[in-house]
Amino acid sequence: MTPHHLPFYLAKPGETDWLMIVMGIFLIAAVLGVGNLYLRLHSLPERMAHKSQKLQFEVVAVLGLLALFTHIHLFWIAALLLALIDLPDFGTPLRSIAGSVEKIADSSTEGAARPEASSDEEAAFAPDKIKPSVPEETSVPRKEARGHV
């Protein structure tokens, strides 16, 4: 009952439908290609913030994950804007200040053991001129000191 002149894209009874196979392969390739493009676009803020500071990179990564799992695009836009902005480095000066304050605190505890000196005496003060706090009679002579060898 079928006509003898069927178009090439229609499969005859009992034959393989090549058009369906080609379209199935095309559909799989299109889904993988669009998914790859979407994930590359989605990770754009993270790749841009990768060369910035660690804290900024982590915040951008968290915003990107929130945008991915919640489908709220505002998180992705915020991550992109944060990745584009160079934040000033507050950590390095604060660490330097903390280290300096720690050195001052250590030196003030050492200075509390000696009596207060005037500014002229402080200028003349040298670490090699410190007298040992242990009397010399009880100190161990140098020839009896044990080494690590």
Largest sheet: none
In which range does the helix fraction lie? Answer: 55-70%
* SSE string: HHHHHH
Structural class designation:
mainly alpha
- Strand element count: 0
**Global geometry:** rod-shaped
Rounded to the nearest angstrom, the radius of gyration is 38 Å
Q: Which residue ranges are poorly predicted, with pLDDT under 50 across at least 5 consecutive positions? A: none
Explain what this protein looks like in three dimensions.
The protein has 149 residues and is mainly α. It is built from six helices and no strands. Helix 3 packs antiparallel against helix 4. It is rod-shaped, with a radius of gyration of 38 Å. The model has no long low-confidence stretch (mean pLDDT 79).
In a nutshell, what does this entry contain?
This protein has 149 residues and is mainly alpha-helical. It contains six helices and no strands.
Overview features:
mainly alpha; 149 residues; 6 helices; rod-shaped
List the helices and strands and how they pair.
Layout: H1 18-42, H2 44-49, H3 54-70, H4 73-84, H5 91-111, H6 119-124
Helix pairs in contact: 3-4
